Amino acid sequence: MIGPSPEPSLVESRGAPDLTAAVAALLRYFHRQSPIRGGSLLITIFGDSIAPRAGAISLRSLIDLARPFGLAERLVRTSVARLASDGWLVARRDGRRSEYRLAPGGQQRFAAATRRIYGEIPSSWDGQWTLLVLPPAAGGRSQIVRDELRWLGFGQVSPGVFAHPSWSVAEARTELNDVDGVAHGLLFKSASEGSEADRRLVATGWDLGELARRYRKFIATFTPLASAAIPGEIGCEAAFVIRTLLIHEYRKIHLQDPLLPPALLPADWVGATAYDLSKRLYSAVFTAAEDYLSAIASTMSAPLPPVSAVTYERFGGLTRRDTQPPR
């Protein structure tokens, strides 16, 4: 279902042989995984690249954008059909042509994920926890509910009790509205006995050791690219490949990170290093990747519109360019 890795010339970067080799190594690394799931990578492309440009793209353009990653046309067609069936995407057709955009539910989920992926990590804490107390889970949904709550940053501290380090009660209620099975949960704001109790709560609710291991692997994978990626010397297709795979891997780890404030984390927390690396590399490739999108992708009837202004706030602020390159 996944084709061979692209030839090196497809991702060649102007005057940067080290970067070309690093991109080729990155593609080989991802193809050794078992396997790159087409739908997951397309979700990354939609969230990172298409949503900021009004959220709609032709199927033909999506096939073209997936090609540098070695995703075959048949896999792309099958994956978008499944994403539409699952409620992530909606299709519009005109004869044999088709266009996909995020469904309303997908837009809400992307908005929540975007705030966490690209937002700045917490730097302070008021010492207050938001606690969620759930009634006994009905049927077989208990694991699904736990997974949803973990995705939102909650840690399970005892059966039926979950803790969040940063949301207010109102924020938590808003975020929980779309999670089946928690409508009758009770929310409280509370403080513990002190720092020792806070550390025990963290150790119970989250596996920071496993999270740190995954962050270290991420850093080892992308540091060679950050060292070689010099803005202005990056080929547009290479920039798009780097940007997409960077966010694809980072989001899988970062969305499992409760984003605990420094007071609750080990000294020199590796998650902060991963964030800084992502910010540096994303900033280096952003403009060239946008050029690639402008040149390759369109809706069913028009070029993609310019990237939204709010996109430049990602990772604490990106260099803004107000004009789009000619097509």
The helix/strand class is alpha+beta
Tally of individual helices: 11
Order of strands in the sheet with the most strands? 5-6-4-7
Q: How is the main sheet built?
A: 4 strands, antiparallel
Estimate percent helicity. 40-55%
User: Unreliable runs, pLDDT <50, ≥5 residues?
Assistant: 1-13, 322-327
Shape: globular
Q: Would you count the extended β strands for me? A: 7
- The succession of helices and strands, N to C, reads HHEHHEEHEHEEHEHHHH
Describe the protein's architecture and organization.
The protein has two domains: 1-122 and 208-327, no CATH class; 129-190, Alpha-Beta Plaits, CATH 3.30.70. 36% of the residues are buried. Helices cover 49% and strands 10% of the residues. It is an alpha+beta fold and 327 residues long. A hairpin with a 2-residue loop joins strand 5 and strand 6 (161-164). It has helices at 17-32, 38-50, 59-66, 73-85, 104-118, 142-151, 169-176, 195-205, 208-228, 236-254, 270-296, and strands spanning 56-58, 89-94, 97-102, 129-133, 155-158, 161-164, 186-190. It has a four-stranded antiparallel beta sheet. Strands 1-3-2 form a three-stranded antiparallel beta sheet. The two termini are 32 Å apart.
Compose a concise summary of this entry.
The protein is of the alpha+beta class and 327 residues long.
Helix-strand layout with pairing:
Elements: H1 17-32, H2 38-50, E1 56-58, H3 59-66, H4 73-85, E2 89-94, E3 97-102, H5 104-118, E4 129-133, H6 142-151, E5 155-158, E6 161-164, H7 169-176, E7 186-190, H8 195-205, H9 208-228, H10 236-254, H11 270-296
Antiparallel strand pairs: 1-3, 2-3, 4-6, 4-7, 5-6
Helix pairs in contact: 1-9, 2-10, 9-10, 9-11, 10-11
